[in-house]
Amino acid sequence: MARKVPEINAGSMADISFLLLIFFLVTTTMDVDSGIVRRLPPPPDPTAETPDVKERNVFNVLVNKSDRLFVESRWGDISTLRAEAKEFLANPGNREDLPEKKLETIPFLGEYPVSKGIISLKNDRGTSYDMYIQVQNELTAAVNELRDELSRQKFGVKFSELSQEYTDAIQKAIPMSISEAEPEDIGGTK
User: Fold this and answer.
1) CB–CB of 174/89 below 8 Å?
2) E strands present in 19-172
3) What is its main location (predicted)?
4) Which residue of 49, 71, 112, 181 has the fewest CB atoms within a 10 Å radius of its CB?
5) CA–CA separation, 110 vs 99, rounded Å?
6) How far is residue 98's CA from residue 59's CA, in Å, rounded to a whole number?
7) How does pLDDT run across 107-134, given as a tens digit for each residue?
8) What is the maximal distance between C-alpha atoms in the chain?
9) Which is nearest to 91 in space by CA: 174, 178, 32?
């Protein structure tokens, strides 16, 4: 007669494995890169004509492969980019060399002069990711500061504290008009 082999009770092993799995799932952190928050425009209508944009309405920013800025046909600096973009978009003195303004009726704001200004950003293929992000941050900050200033002037609170309908009004008054061109080799290594 064959000897009986004793069995190991594996019922509690499944319970322990399940508890360990739950423990590791709860204690593990997942890193999620959020990236740059931008909403892309809808694809253009192929039958629509390309609008004419006057040169005075375009603020050109070029970044070369050496991470040097070329702003409005002259060498620029990242530390002054935000102020230059703000001045361009706001055009406080209604100068002829800065963008035109179009009077629009905006809910909660009434008649408001909306800038036709567009910021055109073009990078060299060799531009570093760090410089690209710095330029994006400065240009976005310029628009956000203008929105914050208008919000405080009209509603007495920061832009981030507004309700959705007031936020929409401020966004119509100060649109995020940043156009990014396809990267290419634009040189200027000095």
Assistant:
1) yes
2) 58-63, 69-71, 74-76, 101-106, 110-115, 118-123
3) membrane
4) 49
5) 21
6) 9
7) 999 999 999 999 999 998 889 989 999 9
8) 108
9) 174
Residue found under tokens 């007031």: 166
**DSSP code of 76?**
E
Give SS3 for 64: coil
Rounded CA-CA distance 80/84 in Å is 6
Nearest partner of 84 among 94, 98, 65, judged by Cα: 98
- For residues 142 and 147, give the distance between their C-alpha atoms in angstroms, rounded to a whole number: 9
Instruction: Report yes or no: 132 and 123 within 8 Å, Cβ to Cβ.
Output: yes
H helices of 91-156, in order, are 129-155
The pLDDT tens digits of the residues spanning 44-92 come to 777 877 777 788 899 999 999 899 999 998 999 999 999 999 999 998 8
Q: How many helices (H) and strands (E) does the chain have?
A: 4, 7
- Burial of 144 from C-beta contacts in 10 A (0-12 / 13-18 / 19+): middle
